[in-house]
Amino acid sequence: MKALAGLLGLIWSAGSLLGAYLLARNAFTAGTPAKEGFYSQVLLFSGGLVLALFALALAWRCVRLLGGAPQPGEEALPDPTSH
After folding, report:
1. Separation in Å, CA 60 to CA 1, 45, 69, 70
2. pTM of the model
């Protein structure tokens, strides 16, 4: 179940990174400052940046989940062979 959640999270993260790229790229097209002004350009870029940061945080968490590292609040299981 952890593997499925990790894979779905990575897919979601990839989609979010694509959206962040599109937001940041559209902030610097020629039409944005001319039509909507500098304020809209800053909002598009900062929205893309924030979305990218959240997507990278999600991807990092999913990679850790797939790697089998113990999650925060989850204790590592003791080794049953050591007595």
Report:
1. 18, 23, 12, 14
2. 0.75
- Separation in Å, CA 43 to CA 8, 12, 54: 29, 23, 16
Residues shown for the chain: 83
Residues 29/31/33/37 CA torsion (nearest 10 deg) = -140
Model pLDDT for residues 21-35, shown as the tens digit of each residue: 999 998 888 787 788
Residues of the chain with pLDDT > 70: what percent?
A: 84
CA distance 9 to 71: 15
Whole-angstrom CA distances from 81 to 25, 68, 74 are 55, 19, 21
